[in-house]
Specification:
The protein is α+β, with helices and mostly antiparallel strands and 434 residues long. It is built from seven helices and 22 strands. Strands 1-8-6-3 form a four-stranded antiparallel beta sheet, with no helix packed on it. Helix 3 packs parallel to helix 4.
Length: 434
């Protein structure tokens, strides 16, 4: 059956997006995770990835169309495969169309006037995110569109906004929790309303979930693909998703009882990070998660009770020799993208000196009488100069695409920017008009 290609739900407030550009044409082959089109929200230009391997059988929208989030915009599958009847864009996302929650949420009905805050569906392939920080605490007043927390996907740190005005009534997850997309993580409503407390459940239950035979076992397409590649029988894997559904993390963390394939230590990314920070030899920690997987609380508990000799003595902030530390999703994406860029993109270096005397004098004149937040930086001048250069020489504003060169109609410049957790590249759209 053909896979549906849908507009992702990037945040709590975005209702529709603009189709910026298709990266492939009908009939083109695509790989799982390959970028197939770009969309524009009211905040940024985003890439939409393929949910699986196959061929783009049908594109249902065109460039500049305004499309509701959650809508089906195309189909990916095998050539000749029959498409759903209608062959037209699906209706805007409705309550029944929204992705099912993948973990336990408050069991009591949502009180009148209360709105759920959910983990947004950032793209076709992200299944879970890490909670980075809460910007609001329970009891704080919030406005619709105001940032209430930050989350980390495998590509970037994202802000999650309040879907309504009101008071933050409850927080159901904590910093560093790994949370599936679509899960309810908080509630916003009138002050004084009492909401049911949801467990901060991000790890799978300790007892294996009974699943059906592998042909009918509930599992995501990505989990099935990884299981097939690694030879894992899905019958034996405990599912941590909704109704015991097996997700990617379940397959990647699975090992037969008493074994560690290839000597790999079964530990969550959070546990490995804590072990590194606390100087704990994680191999000495007993895990309480599925199949003996080591979780964050296991490391914390061990650090509090372990003998002094069992704790490493490396200097503060330094890794313990002979250990490994899991990358954050962002740093892993940075490494992969940089390697891919260097491998696939022809590189050449040009070094030249530029006399900035007049530019600096011009900047000084522009900044006279301005407050600090309004002053023009040297980076602003460089960005403006690049935009003007690309406008004057359109051949430079192009990219390689298989058997052709695409000359871009817009001048959009990415600015590599360091943040505490890694590197991001915000794209300044239509730079030449700013």
């Amino acid at each position: 059956m053909a896979l549906e290609l849908k507009i992702p739900i990037p945040d709590q407030t975005t209702e529709e997006v603009r189709i910026v550009e298709w990266k492939i044409n009908e009939g083109d082959m695509v790989k799982h995770g390959q970028v197939v089109l770009e969309i524009e929200t009211d905040k940024a230009v985003m890439e939409v990835e393929s949910p699986g391997d196959g061929t783009l059988l049908k594109a249902l929208v065109e460039v500049d169309d305004m499309i509701p989030v959650g809508q089906v915009i195309g189909f990916i599958g095998e050539i000749g495969e029959e498409l759903p009847v209608g062959d037209a864009p699906a209706a805007a996302v409705t309550e029944t169309d929204k992705p099912a929650q993948t973990t336990k949420t408050p069991s009591a009905p949502v009180p009148a006037g209360v709105t759920e805050v959910k983990i947004p569906i950032a793209d076709q392939t992200t299944e879970e995110v890490r909670i980075v920080s809460w910007s609001k605490e329970v009891g704080d007043a919030v406005k619709r569109g105001e940032v209430v927390l930050e989350i980390e996907t495998d590509k970037a740190v994202m802000e999650v906004e309040s879907p309504a005005d009101g008071t933050l009534l409850g927080q159901f997850v904590a910093v560093d929790d790994m949370v599936p997309v679509g899960q309810v993580i908080a509630m916003v409503g009138p002050a004084g309303v009492v909401v049911s407390d949801a467990p901060k459940q991000t790890a799978a239950p300790s007892a294996p979930v009974q699943t059906a035979p592998s042909k009918t076992v509930k599992a995501t397409p990505l989990a099935r693909k990884i299981a097939a590649k690694t030879g894992i029988n899905l019958d034996s894997v405990a599912g941590s998703g909704h109704a015991g559904k097996v997700v990617r993390n379940d397959v990647e963390s699975y090992t037969p009882a008493g074994q560690t394939p290839g000597g790999r230590l079964l530990a969550s990314p959070n546990a490995k990070r804590l072990a590194s920070e606390l100087g704990v030899d994680i191999a000495l920690v007993t895990g309480t998660g599925p199949n003996g997987r080591i979780l964050g609380p296991d490391v914390t508990q061990y650090a509090q009770t372990a003998p002094t000799a069992a704790v490493a003595t490396a200097a503060a902030g330094q890794p313990q020799p002979g250990t490994e530390t899991m990358l954050t999703k962002m740093r892993r994406a940075i490494g992969i993208n940089l390697q891919t860029s260097f491998r696939d993109t022809p590189h050449f270096n040009v070094t030249m000196s530029i006399d900035m005397t007049r530019a600096m004098a011009f900047r000084t004149k522009l900044n006279e009488g301005k407050q600090k937040k309004d002053k023009v930086s040297v980076n602003d001048l460089v960005l403006t100069a690049c935009a003007r250069g690309l406008k004057q020489f359109p051949a430079m504003n192009s990219r390689f695409a298989d058997d052709r060169i695409q000359y871009m109609s817009e001048i959009n410049i990415g600015v590599a920017t360091t943040v505490e957790t890694g590197l991001i590249v915000p794209v300044v759209t239509n730079t030449d008009t700013l």
